[in-house]
Queue: 2 jobs
Job 1
Amino acid sequence: MSLDFSWLSDSLYQRWLLTGIGTTLLMSLLGILLMMVFGIIGAIFLHFRTPVLGTITTILVELFRNTPPLVQLFFLYFMLSSLGLSLTDPATGRSIPLFSGFTCAVLSLGLYNGALAVEIIRSGLIAVPAQTVEGARSLGYTRFQTFRHVELPIGLRLSMPAMTNNVVSLIKTSSQAALVAVADIMYGATQIMVETFRNLEVMLLIWLLYVVIASLAVWILRRITILFRIPGYGVDRP
Amino acid sequence: MNSEFRTFALGIIGVPLCLIGLLAMIYGDRTGATLAFIADRTPMLLTGSPDFSSLQGGFIANIGMSLAAMAIAGALGIILGIGLIAEFWPTRLLSGFVMNVLRNSPWLVVLYAMLYLLPFEMKIFGVWITISPVVKSIAGLSLPVAANIAEIFRGGIEAIPTGQWESARSLGYRRLQILRYIVLPQALPLMIPNLMTIYAMLFIGTSLVVVTGASDVLFVGRTIIETAGSSTASAIYIYILFLFFLFAFPIAILTRWLERRIGTVSP
């Protein structure tokens, strides 16, 4: 078996791959933002034992954690696109669907990994030493102030190692978006495969690209963990 | 099992209610007819045949593929895991590299790669064997899972105090003997919750095999949607979500209960 990578010199294929990398990075970034928002809101509901919202959060977290993200994505895509909502692009005046494949993919990533993030942040909050919380309370902080200024900042830092795994999982899951025609790396790869029939070589390159992106994300998150570390809390050398 | 029982009761009642509510919201007064339609197609989605007469795919195939992939991944993972803790450093380095590459690559990409890496048919001992999409799917799923199992294996073994190794060595055991008779019997129970988490992940990941053309539940579901019209799409996907939930949720709860009993926290 001989590998032929000569198709890589074609500028059209290079452009497809570069656009794909851009889309994947943008999708992952937006997904991570949404994931953190859902994760923190859900963790607040569970942490304060909010009567109705806490129960709903538990049910939704279990629903999203225990079902395939791919089916969730297909479901969102078919349900939301059948609503037929659209908005008008102010620059061109064209009407673009509000729930395109890209929006649905970001939403599905945010929901699936957000459900995982709820549990991660919650266990981070539980791991905050009780003395620190009691100390804040005895200094006159209210329950919410304690949460906002003491528990959440320390809890988020303590949950960083698990959150790193979750972010890597999100980047890997984002490759599914190609199945609802989002032009990410995976989609570009399938296009190139259809034209060149160099299936194996293209897949090996994509494999490498994803490993590089995931490793880069791990490195960045490790730098962030070290940068925001509070001495005395959590591991000393993450 | 108090807190787990509460979550289990909440989930097993709440999630179906939530999904039925969603169904009612989408279909309005056609909900009854949609439910009848789903009930009619249940044998198709579960076994791939219209009346439970034969097994051609569907949800049962997802379960079967996940079990087969787990068995293969277990064997591969233990070999890779032994490589991770080897004394000979090149073995350790190579195993670590393989493990990290496999763990950091999307399952979808590995599945696609397997689809093209494995030939359509292969000659083994003079017999031509056709490699079906199902076999390719199992191979593609088991590789990343094997890497995860190797990591769990290494973590479990490193959790055993080094004093156990030293005292066994002073009693004259060889390295593999220590692993086999002293360390593994203590480490395996610690690994079980993590292994169950990985199995749940693998089971959920079997939905991806739809790209290889194996007739799993998603493939059957899409065929039904194509023949019955796209208005049924939401209902079919809700039903598939429900099927996956019904299988994966009890495993997740059992894992959490075991974790609390053993006193370990999954990574």
Job 2
Amino acid sequence: MRILEEGKSDYFKVAPDSYREFVRDHKPHRMVSKLITHKEAVERFVHDGDYLAYDCNYFQRGPSSLIREIIRQRKQKLWICGKFTYVACALLVEGGCADRIDIGFIGFGPWIARAVREKKCTIYEYSNAIVTLRLKAGAMGLPFLPARSFGGTDGFARSGCKIVEDPYTKKPVLLAPALNPDVAIIHVHQADEYGNARVFGTGIAHQECALASRRVILSAEEIVETDELRRDPARTSIPHFAVDAVVHAPFGAYPGTVQGYYASDPAGVVEAMGAMFSGDFREYLKKHVHSVASHEEYLEKVVGAKKLIEIRRRETIREGYGA
Amino acid sequence: MSTPATHFNEREFVICQISRLVEDRYVYWVGGGGEPLSSVLLAKRTTAPNLQYLTEDGVVGPEALVPFDPLMTMISSRANYRALQWGTMNYAADLAHLGYVDYGILATLQVDRYGNINSTVVGKYAGGEGRRFGGPGGADSIAALAWRTILVTDQQKRKFVERVDFISSPGFLDGPGARERHGLPPNTGPWRVYTPWAMYGYGDDCQMMLQAIAPFVTVEQVLEELSFRPALAAKIEVLEVPTEEELLVLRSQIDVGGQVTDRGRWIELKDGQYQLVQA
């Protein structure tokens, strides 16, 4: 295949053969219980230097409680997947955890230019759908997938994508390198203790993320019986053998929403956005991450039952979510 | 029944312009929130009740319940209420690759003569010197894959530049044939640019052309707020002001809290003339 143009940036290694071998040797093919705490899941499955993908974001059915736990444990030198994001990248960079970002969309503010100027953070440019396409390639066991977007942009030159002559049509086509993250954190509506999981409503790339990633931590609003999943198998979004840990995390997306379960907390959203636009996360991280030892303590002491009842009450729509 | 309004602001004006383009027979991919989504929601409640739109999270044809909580324009139960289908981001991109997306509607930070879109950095990219913004998000897929793209931005010199500081999402790049050379599908690209003051189209040379202005500004005022001189249509049309009916829906059902419309200058009808209210 003739290469016509190449992005000049470094990109996370593409190695479908080694990923297959990893799946054979390390993925839990047998159904075993994986129900553990946030603390244990992050200790065991998130390592310094990992490529980390989270699905959705801190405000929209994202793994917010796991993001806080990663910061609490002061993980370091993560390369993160900044698609469809408001504050998650800012929190992970300012929390001292991440130093590389593949960008599709991130919430901006003084923090990002400062991190780049001070060489605390390296940025690689993509778009949201090119990042999810890379995850799709990773989830298919392929080295790359083509797309008919992203070519001609200045982001392309700062990415790991290439434009080649398509051997079939002879026209230029973009190739995006597969992405197989070291670890993914995904928040779901329901999971059983083995990691069979259901996501209701729209999403970004939860299934691709789960299948593409070497290690997968699910946080679930509800832990359900496997029999419940067997009643309606078409609604299973993620199979157990992709999953390494299941964490029970009611209100795990707080201050964000989980569709059909609870609304976002606008005050909590504004507080996080405010920290991002001010460029100073110290107070936010102190209050929301480091002042408590666990998600349970966070809900009890920082958020409070009154707020939790209120956001559950404000979510009036149930159609399509759950039974 | 439609009654031309006598008081409205710039934001309301531009939302109503785009809303009037929207029709039942097309599929739209709408950028996440702001003027693009407000325009489509307004059309759905006025002239095009059966229109279908997608957003980046792969929702197809929702009947959104507005208003939304702050930032909750996607992956939320109100935004995605009573959709025809719920998908994911790759599904939205698939539909656009296939050619189902007739129009994309996007807001942008900076645009140039060829309709290239910058949402990444204003100023110098290298070394973190420029002012950094969020990146293309879903806009790159919309701008590359929709048959026609409608852009909305402000009429300011710093937003209409000869060449954007960074091409986040593609317009016509550097002219005819450039999109195809970089792997984008043929017969796609920018179609209209709307600002609160003017509407632009594109000539065969892929360059921006001023086609219409708002009744409260002159062509000279508009041209002063561009860093380059666009082509001028043989006849510059005058855009119609919002109607009272449109404003009622927009203010009472769509943007009740003013999250989208509560900025920009006011316009009033005075002595038979629409005028910008002096601050």
